[in-house]
């Protein structure tokens, strides 16, 4: 299944489908306190429903994420990532 970047609902649906089939999502295999914390953050973000902001792991690596922030109509926001 190919997921469209920026569509966090698809990622949430995929995780739910995998769990229903008894399969832990591939990003759920990260061990240790850092991995557990990132999994909790991911679930919180997926369930928040904030419009205009989405983020999710880029691949199976929980330490590399893709985020999208949409500004107000007619604006061109400048973002700096450090």
UniProtKB/TrEMBL annotation:
UBC core domain boundaries: 33-82
Protein name: UBC core domain-containing protein
């Amino acid at each position: 299944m190919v997921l469209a970047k920026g569509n966090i609902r698809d990622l949430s649906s995929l995780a739910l489908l995998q769990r229903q089939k008894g399969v832990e999502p591939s990003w759920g295999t990260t061990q240790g306190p850092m991995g557990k914390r990132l999994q909790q953050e991911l679930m919180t973000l997926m369930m928040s429903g904030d419009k205009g902001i989405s983020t999710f792991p880029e691949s199976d690596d929980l330490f590399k994420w893709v985020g999208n922030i949409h500004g107000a109509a007619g604006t061109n926001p400048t973002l700096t990532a450090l």
